[in-house]
Amino acid sequence: MKKLKFKTNLKCNGCVNAIKPHLEKVDGIVSWDVDLKSPNKIIEVTTDTASEEEIQKAIEAAISEAGYTVELIS
Question: I need a surface site. Which of 7, 26, 50, 65 has the fewest CB within 10 A?
Fold first, then answer.
C-alpha cells in the first residue's frame, strides 16, 4: 500500500462532500482523508495500485472535475 498526499483548495466539509463521489469512482483507492485544519488542506490517499503515476492522475482528474485544485506533495 502506498500513501499519497495532495495540497488542495478545499475549505470546509461541504467541499469534502463535493469531492467524495468523484474520489469514490477512482479504482485503487483503499481510503482517503482530508485535514482541513492544515493550511494546505491536505488529502491523504491510501492506494493499492501498482502505478503511483496512474493513481495520481486519476485523483487529480477526480478532484479537478469536482471544481477544486490539487497538487501532489509526496
Answer: 50
Which domains are seen in the chain, by residue range? 2-72 (3.30.70.100)
Partners of 2 in the β-ladder: 47
C-alpha cell at 32: 482517503
Distance between CA atoms of residues 28 and 47, nearest Å: 5
Instruction: State the chain's mean pLDDT as an integer.
Output: 91
Residue 31 to residue 67: CA distance in whole angstroms = 21
Runs of H (alpha helix) within the chain: 13-24, 52-65
Per-residue pLDDT band for 50 (boundaries 50, 70, 90) equals low
